[in-house]
């Protein structure tokens, strides 16, 4: 009954969360893509990192993952550091 609606809502919120986190991380967006913090830290050339359905993928270096993975990549931190940063930034416990 409400299952499909919930799924849709979750997907939307997940996408927004990742995009918000990408912005909070200071990633530069150009069009629909971001510059990859792993292989394009200087923001030159064509942005290769795409965000979709709560996950990211870089078409240049192949890095991919969820929102936590993006924080790890951008901040060069381990899993614990990434989660701590997310909790601090979003004010939410996961
Ligand atoms: Zn990359």
Report a brief summary of the structure.
InterPro entries: DNA_primase_Znf_CHC2 (IPR036977), Znf_CHC2 (IPR002694). This protein has 94 residues and is of the alpha+beta class. The chain contains three helices and five strands; from the N terminus they run H-E-E-E-E-E-H-H.
Give your account of this protein's structure.
The chain has three helices and five strands, in the order H-E-E-E-E-E-H-H. The strands form two sheets. Strands 3-4-5 form a three-stranded antiparallel beta sheet. The chain has a two-stranded antiparallel sheet with strand order 1-2. The protein has helices at 3-24, 67-75, 79-90, and strands spanning 29-30, 33-34, 49-52, 55-58, 64-66. The model has no long low-confidence stretch (mean pLDDT 87). The protein is an alpha+beta fold and 94 residues long. Helix 2 (67-75) crosses helix 3. The chain starts with a helix and ends with a helix. The radius of gyration is 14 Å and the shape is globular. The chain has a single domain (3-90), classed as Zinc finger, CHC2-typedomain (DNA Primase, Chain A, Alpha-Beta Complex), CATH 3.90.580. The structure holds zinc ion. Zinc ion binds at residues 36, 38-39, 48, 58, 60-61, 63. Residues 17-89 form the Zinc finger CHC2-type domain. GO terms for molecular function: DNA binding; DNA-directed RNA polymerase activity; zinc ion binding. It comes from Desulfuromonas soudanensis. This is CHC2 zinc finger protein. It holds the Pfam family Zn_ribbon_DnaG.
